[in-house]
Structure formats: structure tokens, C-alpha cells
């Protein structure tokens, strides 16, 4: 394979909730912590310091030179975290992320590198307890090259096994069903995209790529009936944006519009708290093609996963009605360019 693979992973539900509230608070400019966040951060911080102390003691007992330092750090992290992973506090990862940000701000590369090794090791241990298709998503999230992800998916679909990468490292791949991988990525996407604020656009872009690439490897590609999310009506924001794109000639302008929206700008900008308040106060937002919204509530911004879902749904309708020509070609071009933009955002 072309890239090295590391198992990424999951968090306990309570920890995800704490992290998500922390991210929203930071993005919305609210410096206040609620009691549960503060307590979780304190307990998590104490545990991170304890892990660091134990790792330092282990490293002091090792006779290591500069060349083997990184390997020694990774071994120490595996040894310390392997014993503690089941007792991790809910705020451990939140505290770890805060410490990584502080190290980056202080330009302390050595401390930052050490903390990042701890984070990757924890994620690896957590994911190994997950079902095979969840483990595969973690692997794919840490595989930057598109060709490498495709090779990984092929081998996973064939039953997995032990493989050797280009750098000589042996990798254990679980066997998993492509449909399960695509559905799991789609479930995660639906959860992230249904919120007013996207906590991590890089992760969002990676999940969209994983879903689309897994779907594309199945028999029917993007039009496979197993890919249907069950939308009865197409989402307003995505339809409005797609209508704008189709009205323009494919080219740089359209590609720039797609890029801005996928990055969370223009029609893809997160709803601010003030917007939500004014919406709840009765303001009627525009719906499809400028008409009043059916619900009377402001729709969510354009989201990458839902946008590609909408493109696929419209394409399916065109092909089902045997309406070929410029519109279908245009939509396929939009789909392709959106994936290219998401690859740039993701890695």
C-alpha cells in the first residue's frame, strides 16, 4: 500500500458530548464553562499529567539515542495507556486537545509531539474494541491518499488479513462489508450535519469521502439503491445551491462556489445563535427557488454529505426518466469537483 495506516476511533458517548459542547462554546465566542465541562477537564487533565509522568519514568530507565527516541516514546505510550485505557476519564481527550493547543501556541514541538503520540495511542486502543467496519473507518480517516484508501477498501472487502506497506510495516486489516462501512459513515455524517455548528470540518470531509468511495466500489456506484438515505423531500438549502450551480457554465467560478460552501462559507456558513433566535421569533426564511419555507423555519446550511446525497438523488431521477444530456453531465461534473475539494479539505 502507498500509505501507512493507523487505527483511528471512537469516544464514549459522554466524552463526545463534553467535547462537542466545548467546541460549540469556543466557536460561538462564549468563554464560560459549565460545571460538568470544568470538572471533566480537571479530572482529564490530572490523568493526562499522570500518564506523562509514568511515560517519563519509563523513558528514563531506557538507554536510548536520538535515532530511536520516537520508537521508545511510542512503546512507552503503548505500555502506559494499555493498562489505563479502560479507566480513562470522560474529559481525558478534551484535556489532551487543550494541552496540544497550548504546546502549539508556545511553539514547544517536543511537548506537542509527545501529547500527539498519547492521543493516537488512546484512539488506537479505543477503536480495536469497535466492530470491524468502525475500525476500517478509523483506518480510512488516517489514509490521505485516495488510491491507498481504495486499495484498503478492496482488501477489507476481500476479507482482510495481514499486509505489508511500502515502508515494510505489517498491517492487520479486519474484514468488513462495504455497505456497512458506507452506512456507518453516513450515520456519523447525519449526526454531524444535523447540528447548527459543525465541530470538525476536516473530519466531516473525511467521512464524506469514505462514504462516497465505499459506495462507489459497490455494484451500482453512487446510484446503487442501497445508498438511498430515504429522503422523501429534498433539502431546501442543498436544492437552492444546486440550482445556482446548474444555472452556470462548469468552470472556475462554479468550482470556487463549491469550495467556499464546503469550507463553511456563503451558503455553507454555520447558523449563528443570533440567527437561530431571530428564526424562532417567527422570521420566515426562503425555501426552494426563493419561495417561502414550508416549515417557516430557517433551514440548515448546505452540508457536504447532504449536498452529495442531493446530487445523487437528482441524477437518479434524471437517469430513471431517460433524460440524458447536459444536465446529467453537469451534475456528474459537480459531484466530481465536490469530491476533489473535500479531498483538499480532509488531508
UniProtKB/TrEMBL annotation:
It comes from the Eukaryota. GO terms for biological process: regulation of DNA-templated transcription. Residues 280-293 have a biased composition (Low complexity). Residues 1-33, 263-299 are annotated as: Disordered. One of its GO terms (cellular component) is chloroplast nucleoid. Residues 18-29 have a biased composition (Basic and acidic residues). InterPro entries: PRDA1. This is Uncharacterized protein. It comes from Nyssa sinensis.
